[in-house]
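Risk mitigation, structural track. In case the binding assays with T3D fail to produce interpretable data, a predicted complex structure has been prepared as a fallback.
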Amino acid sequence: MAYQTLVIEDANGVRTITLNRPDALNAFNEALKIELADALAVAARDASARAVVITGAGRAFCAGQDLKDRAREGEDGAGASLGESLRARYNPIIRRVREMEKPVIAAVNGVAAGAGCSLALACDLRIASEGASFIQAFVRIGLIPDSGATFFLPRLAGLGKAFELAVTGDALQAGEAERLGVVNRVVPTAELMSVTMELAGRLAQAPTRAIGLTKRAMNRALLTGLEDALDYEASLQELAGRTHDHAEGVQAFMEKRAPHFTGD
Ligand code: T3D
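Fallback model:
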């Protein structure tokens, strides 16, 4: 598949996948979702890719679902089924990250919001630049955390902090994320890719099979409920996506104003 929204690079056994819609902060439009799922499947199959890095072009890692697409669909009167969107597009991406028996590192170069945050949380390791932040942006538009966020965030940050981040939508800055154990390391922005590539290169030269089996064992030890969680998120997001508050949240984002939520 020829990619329009990704840049793929290979060096020393490391496959780097760069989300490449910088003008939209690498938000997930339809093409990006399809292409990322494909690129992950290809990386999983390709024996020459022994470690995978996911990062974003420009100043953001990924701003989650493209809300301009959602607003357009709303105007057309064909509001999307968010449950279907998660089952068909987002959940397969998260599943592929977890099932790939090689290390996947998120090089978080800026803001990671909504499903962009979920993607980073699903990776095996997170290296963040000093200016990076993690935002459970869902609540800002009347939605619930999805794409595995209800599963990974409590496991990484603890239930209390995860709930706070999910219901406030406040940004978790890189330094605090490191203190909580949500990211493995924070580095100066200029050093993000060199530090990430050094680690990824080291892992790519390590015994890939043993690392893959370690990932499989840890998935089994701690992540066995992932499939249920992804499916349950999709069911609940279908409900949240039909609320007036969600429509208002998307409208407010488009109009660059604060939303007025009514609870309906
Ligand atoms: O729908 C389904 O299928 C269900 C699945 C949902 C999964 C989700 O991800 S839901 C959550 C969706 N994402 C968000 O709600 C985040 C929206 N973005 C923001 O809140 C802010 O942009 C950020 C906090 C991420 C960054 O803020 P800031 O001030 O640094 O940048 P900005 O000025 O808001 O954005 C810069 C541009 O990127 C701007 O475009 P413009 O005005 O210059 O033409 C902005 O509209 C665009 N942009 C940012 N995020 C998105 C986006 N465009 C489309 N979709 C976005 N998500």
